[in-house]
UniProtKB/TrEMBL annotation:
Keywords: Bacterial flagellum protein export, Protein transport, Transport
Organism: Rheinheimera marina
Taxonomic classification: Bacteria, Pseudomonadati, Pseudomonadota, Gammaproteobacteria, Chromatiales
Name of the molecule in the record: Flagellar biosynthetic protein FlhB
Gene3D superfamilies from the UniProt entry: secretion proteins EscU
UniProt function note: Required for formation of the rod structure in the basal body of the flagellar apparatus. Together with FliI and FliH, may constitute the export apparatus of flagellin.
Length: 103
C-alpha cells in the first residue's frame, strides 16, 4: 500500500562504511523523497524522522561527507540504529552485565 505523496516531504540518505565520515548518497523532495523512504523500508533500513536535521543535511552536496559539526548527532543515530538491530561491537562482551544497576 502506498501513501499519498507529500510535496513538502524531504528525505536524505546517508551511507556509512565504518571507516570514513558518513556521506550523502541520496536526497530529494516530494516524489523523490517518497521513493527514497520506500526504498529504505524495502531494504530494512531504519528511518529517523527529524525535520530540522533533514534541512541541514539537504544543504550538503550529493556525495559529500557530513561536516564535523554533525559527527556527534549522526554517530548517536548510527549507534542507536545498531542497538535496535541487536548489533554490538565485539569488544562490548555483554556490557549490559557489567553495569551495576543497584548502585
Amino acid at each position: 500500500m502506498t501513501q499519498p505523496i507529500n510535496e513538502q516531504q524531504s528525505a536524505v540518505a546517508l551511507a556509512y562504511d565504518g571507516e570514513q565520515a558518513p556521506k550523502i548518497v541520496a536526497k530529494g523532495h516530494g516524489e523523490l523523497a517518497a521513493e527514497i523512504l520506500q526504498t529504505a523500508k524495502e531494504h530494512g533500513v531504519l528511518v529517523h524522522e527529524d525535520e530540522e536535521l533533514v534541512k541541514v543535511l539537504q544543504r550538503i552536496e550529493l556525495g559529500d561527507s557530513i561536516p564535523k559539526e554533525l559527527f556527534i548527532i549522526i554517530a548517536e543515530l548510527i549507534a542507536f540504529s545498531y542497538v535496535l538491530q541487536g548489533k554490538f561491537p565485539d569488544e562490548w562482551h555483554n556490557i549490559h552485565q557489567r553495569i551495576d544497576l543497584k548502585s
